[in-house]
Amino acid sequence: MQFQVPQFIDIEDKIMGPLTLRQFLYLAAAGAFSFISFFALQTVLWGALTVIMGLIAATFAFIKYNGQPMVKVVAAFTKFLWFPKFYLWRYTAPSAALPTLHALPKQNQEAPVSNNPLKMLMLKLTTSKQAIPNREKALPPNIVAANH
C-alpha cells in the first residue's frame, strides 16, 4: 500500500501572484499606511514615512536571517532587550556530612595488582614519586662513539 507523503511543507503557498499571503499582508499594510498618511500629512513628511514604511515592510516580507523570518528575529531581539537578564550564582559551602579526602580510608598500595611484571612496571611508572633504579639501560659503545 503506497501513501503520498507531503513534500515542501515548510514553503508557504503563493496566493497573490508571486507573493505569499504573509508577504502580501506586510506590503498591503505599508500601502494602507501610505494611503492614510497621504491625506493627513504634508507631502515631504508623507514621502519620507512612505519610504521608511516600505523598507520595513519589504524587510519583513522578503528577508530571512539564518533561515528565520525577520519577524521572529525582531521579536527575539525585542524580548532580549525588554526582559531583564538576571544571572545568579549561589555559593554553597561544602557540607560537613560529605566525607573529605583525609577521612577516606587509605588503600593498600603495596598489594600487587597482578603478577605480570610489565603491568607492575607500568603501575610504578605512572603512580610512584620516586625514580625507579636501573630503568634506563646504557647505550652500546658503538652508538656512543658514533655520536661524538
- Beta-strand percent range: 5-15%
Largest sheet properties: 2 strands, antiparallel
Give helix % range: 40-55%
Order of helices and strands: EEHHEEHHH
End-to-end C-alpha gap: 84 Å
What's the pLDDT, averaged over the residues?
Answer: 82
Poorly predicted tracts of residues? none
Structural class: mainly alpha
Number of helices: 5
Would you report the number of β strands? 4
Main sheet: strand order: 1-2
Calculate Rg over CA atoms.
38 Å
Shape descriptor reads elongated
Task: Give the tags.
148 residues; mainly alpha; two-stranded antiparallel sheet; two-stranded antiparallel ribbon; 5 helices; 48% helix; elongated
Summary of the model, kept short:
By secondary structure, the protein is mainly alpha-helical. 48% of the residues lie in helices and 6% in strands.
Write the layout of secondary structure elements.
Elements: E1 14-16, E2 19-20, H1 21-40, H2 43-62, E3 64-65, E4 68-69, H3 70-82, H4 117-127, H5 141-147
Antiparallel strand pairs: 1-2, 3-4
Helix pairs in contact: 1-2
Overview of the molecule:
The chain has 148 residues and is mainly α. It has a domain of 69 residues. The chain has five helices and four strands. It has a two-stranded antiparallel ribbon with strand order 1-2. Strand 1 and strand 2 form a beta hairpin. Helix 1 runs antiparallel to helix 2. The relative contact order is 0.05. The mean pLDDT is 82.
